[in-house]
Specification:
Layout: H1 14-26, H2 29-36, H3 40-54, E1 59-62, E2 65-68, H4 70-94, E3 100-106, H5 108-115, H6 119-125, E4 129-135, H7 142-145, E5 149-153, E6 162-165, E7 170-175, H8 177-182, E8 196-199, H9 206-212, E9 224-226, H10 229-237, E10 242-246, H11 251-256, E11 260-261, H12 264-267, E12 269-270, E13 274-278, H13 286-299
Length: about 300
């Protein structure tokens, strides 16, 4: 009939689309094959068939792997949405409609220090929502790993997703009251000779912090170094050194008095380190909307939807 949408005579197979998306994600056929539980030659065959069907080159092959052509980049944007919609539809069809499960993934320190103590409050307000929380520094795949919202740490460089940045986060020099009494600090230069705790994963580290204050990095190595902020904060609370950390993550320690801010007016710096990331389609899920609204309330600022 005139006016009806006509589908092409041949559609690409789901397996070829999956091979394309995973290869584009990793830039490597072997890694895509591992995720899809296929051989690299099978994935290459699927990609060749897809390119032959489209009649355009989707990847540029090189010694280090593959990269998308402009046609491939556009195709990825469009088919990723289709695959995600299919995953969501399948989830809805197989789920118990009486049970809403909110699946969260978070950077470890934010999940442990900020989110975990507040989850009981969310459950009391939304008893019909079950919470599944996992933590790691890995940026997970939303459809494959079944994640509703990912709370990521780092620079907000995820153009294909919705990003809501946690504002009003500040990095400050933190120390136990006992250590500060023994080793008083009046200015940034005083910290050049102090025991410093390095948090390896933070956006602002001691060398950059000293540079902001017009000082060269200390010649002495850091007293301690950790790959998790919660470990740095715990070490600092035991008087093992001075930590440069987020006051948002340190709220529990600051409230208990086991850590204090050292000269907060002059030695602190604003930072945008944590972000709520999710596919645009997820904003229509009631459980996600309710979680984002609750986060706004807890953080004390709006995400400006």
């Amino acid at each position: 009939m005139r006016g009806e949408l006509e589908l092409p005579a041949v559609l690409p197979s789901l397996r070829s689309i999956q091979a394309f998306e995973q290869t584009a994600r990793f830039g490597n056929v072997a890694r895509a094959a591992e995720v899809l539980n296929l051989t690299p030659s099978a994935v290459s065959h699927q990609l060749s068939n897809l390119e032959a069907m489209i009649g355009r080159q989707l990847f540029v092959r090189n010694a280090r792997g593959v990269s998308l052509t402009p046609v491939g980049e556009q195709y990825l944007k469009e088919v990723s949405g289709v695959l995600h919609a299919l995953a969501v539809a399948t989830e809805h069809a197989t789920s118990d409609v009486a049970l809403e499960c909110l699946r969260l993934h978070s950077a470890p320190s934010f999940g442990l220090l900020w989110l975990m103590p507040r989850l009981e409050g969310f459950r009391l307000q939304h008893p019909d929502i079950q919470i599944n929380l996992s933590c790691s520094y890995e940026s997970l795949h939303f459809s494959r790993d079944k994640i509703d919202v990912d709370i990521r740490h780092g620079l907000p460089n995820w153009p294909s997703y919705e990003v809501r940045t946690v504002r009003n986060e500040t990095f400050a020099v933190l120390a136990s009251p006992k250590l500060l009494e023994q080793r008083p600090v009046k200015g940034a230069c005083d910290l050049l000779g102090r025991e410093l705790i390095l948090s390896q994963a933070t956006l602002l580290k001691w060398p950059q912090w000293f540079a902001q204050h017009g000082l060269a990095r200390p010649e002495n190595p850091n007293a301690l170094s950790f790959d998790r902020s919660y470990m740095s904060l715990e070490a600092a609370s035991h008087g093992l050194g001075f930590a440069l950390e987020s006051t948002l993550l340190a709220q529990k320690y600051l409230a208990a008095g086991s850590l204090v801010e050292v000269a907060p007016e002059s030695l602190s710096a604003p930072v945008a380190a944590h972000h709520l990331v999710f596919p645009k389609a997820h904003s229509s899920f009631p459980r996600v909307r309710r979680f984002l609204e609750w986060m706004e309330s807890e953080l004390g600022h709006s995400f400006n939807f």
